[in-house]
From TrEMBL:
<feature type="compositionally biased region" description="Low complexity">
    <location>
        <begin position="26"/>
        <end position="48"/>
    </location>
</feature>
<protein>
    <recommendedName>
        <fullName>FMN-binding protein</fullName>
    </recommendedName>
</protein>
<feature type="region of interest" description="Disordered">
    <location>
        <begin position="26"/>
        <end position="57"/>
    </location>
</feature>
Length: 151
């Protein structure tokens, strides 16, 4: 009988294979246009170093794409860091559906007031400007930016 540890290793290997097959870990969705699964995304994230709370981040300008929803939908996030604080943020709406684009654009207008001046470790948004899905993509992009900026 396999131990719990052996079982975890098998699950990790199986998920690693799924991650490679779906193309997770890049800014592009899988080849079939489907959004990466939560399991595959979590596995891809676990395989690279993760910035922890209290991390010191390098000053600079960073960009990342955040995916969310069932279409799939995505936004581009550009962020400037100085002394571990967000000094500027810009969200670019990428939706082609008029309703989705409207939510993304309203979110993009509201997000600077919600995050500029905050420490990067504190940046996490929820429903904002009537948008409940776009924050998921934004938070995903922030996690990618944390990884890029970690010292």
């Amino acid at each position: 009988m396999a131990s719990v540890r052996d079982g975890r290793a098998l699950v990790a290997l199986a998920l690693t294979g799924a991650t490679l097959a779906t193309g997770c870990g890049s800014d592009a969705p899988p080849g079939d246009g489907a959004q990466p699964t939560a399991t595959a995304t979590a596995t891809a994230t676990a395989q690279r170093p993760r910035a922890e709370a209290g991390t010191t981040y390098r000053d600079g300008d960073y960009e990342a794409k955040g995916w969310y929803g069932g279409l799939p939908s995505n936004i581009d996030v550009a962020l400037t860091l100085r002394d571990n604080r967000v000094t500027d943020v810009e969200v670019t709406a990428n939706a082609t559906n008029a309703t989705s684009r409207d939510y993304q654009e309203r979110f993009a207008e509201a997000v600077p007031d919600a995050v500029v001046g905050k420490r990067l470790d504190e940046v996490r948004v929820s429903r904002l400007a009537g948008s409940s899905g776009t924050p998921d993509g934004f938070n995903q992009a922030i996690e990618r930016i944390k990884d890029q900026a970690a010292s």
